[in-house]
Amino acid sequence: MLHRLVILFAILVGFTQVQAEPLCVKNLDGSPFCLSQPAQRIVSLAPHLTEMVFAVGAGAQLVGVVDHSDFPPAARTLPHLGSYHQPDMEKLLSLKPDLVLAWHSGASPAVLDTLHRLGLRVWVSRGEHIADIPLELRGIGILSGHSTQSTQAADDFERELHQLTQQYAHARPVRGFYQIWAQPLVTVSDGHFIAEAMRYCGIQNIVGTTSNLSPTWSEEAVLRARPELILTSPPARDFERWTRWPELPAVKNNALIILPPDVLMRPTPRMIEGIRAMCVAADQVRAQHSE
To answer: Using the 8-state DSSP alphabet, how is residue 177 labeled?
Structure first.
């Protein structure tokens, strides 16, 4: 009897120790960010982070989001805190979050400083490259207690990317241009995650490398580069402008492509949909040249 009690005590102690192990991920600077237990009241300060929380199965733990957090549809029903540039701090505090997810490129240093001074636990994601997506899926999964589902989502994403890499490794390059905005004409340089997506399809970004990830460009520069494919996403304002130059290869190829909304503008698992749609457009251009 005593022997059985000793064994039971050892099991209970071991179980308590396992439960007490902190949940740790890395901060942007590589230092550890740890929680003593899975977060139960999560606030997301970026639309793509909201989407990621749902993707790992932690949507029920979200208590607040910022404007434009509209996917999945359940995100639209959550309390809104205003812009990610300047969230309503009073409302945020009233939600009593045990984890705040912020985006390095979206949350200002002043906002992050305020959150930290208020004693909130804030994990800041990078969200600048496609390779960040599976890393952040796994990180959010660990912090929310959904490691199994997040690992599966991250593995699926990486597997799809690998398949695309293999599929287009030897494809003929297609000169392409991505229009983010019409007036002024805004595009992406090679460091932007949309330009990374283009490379998966064998699309050469005519903009190349610049000091700005989303530079303002000129029509004249686009015309000189003679892109074979011009891409954009909704709302696609003034996209028909390019038809004024019928000799432009993209116009001759009927390759002015409006991609599905949001799937390329946010670094989330849905980027795979956008990349595949982009690859289909590039393949159509290649097919015309092979005829």
So the answer is: E
Q: From residue 244, how far is each of 174, 184, 225, 259 by CA, in Å?
A: 22, 18, 16, 21
Nearest alpha carbon to residue 213 among 233, 239, 193: 193
What is the CA angle 189-195-199, rounded to 5?
Answer: 130
Q: Dump strand ranges (E) for 1-92.
A: 23-26, 32-35, 42-44, 62-64
- 8-state DSSP, 76: G
Higher-confidence residue of 195 and 265: namely 195
Decide if domain 23-156 falls under CATH 3.50.50.60: no
Residue with tokens 């905005």: 181
**Using one digit for the tens of pLDDT, what is the confidence trace for 32-43?**
999 999 999 999
| Interior/surface letters 36-75, b for 16+ CB within 10 angstroms, e for the rest | eebbeebbbbbbbbbbbbbbbbbbebbbbbbebbebeeeb
The first and second tokens of residue 273, run together, are: 């949909």
- Neighbour tally for 9: CB within 10 Å: 10
pTM: 0.87
One DSSP character per residue, 208-264 reads ---SSSS-B--HHHHHHH--SEEEE-TT-TTGGGGGG-TTSHHHHTT-EEEPPSSTT
The rounded Cα 172 to chain-centroid distance in angstroms is: 28
Query: 23-156 and 171-290 share one CATH topology?
Result: yes
Q: What is the pLDDT of residues 139-168, one digit of tens each?
A: 999 999 999 999 999 999 999 999 999 999
Structural domain spans, the chain: 23-156, 171-290
Q: Which amino acid is at 91?
A: K
Is domain 171-290 classified as CATH 3.40.50.1110?
no
Q: Is 10 helix (H, G, I), strand (E, B) or coil?
A: helix
How far CA 286 is from CA of 149, 162, 232, 249, in Å, comes to: 38, 21, 19, 12
Which residues contact residue 224 at a Cβ distance below 8 angstroms, ignoring those fewer than 6 apart?
A: none
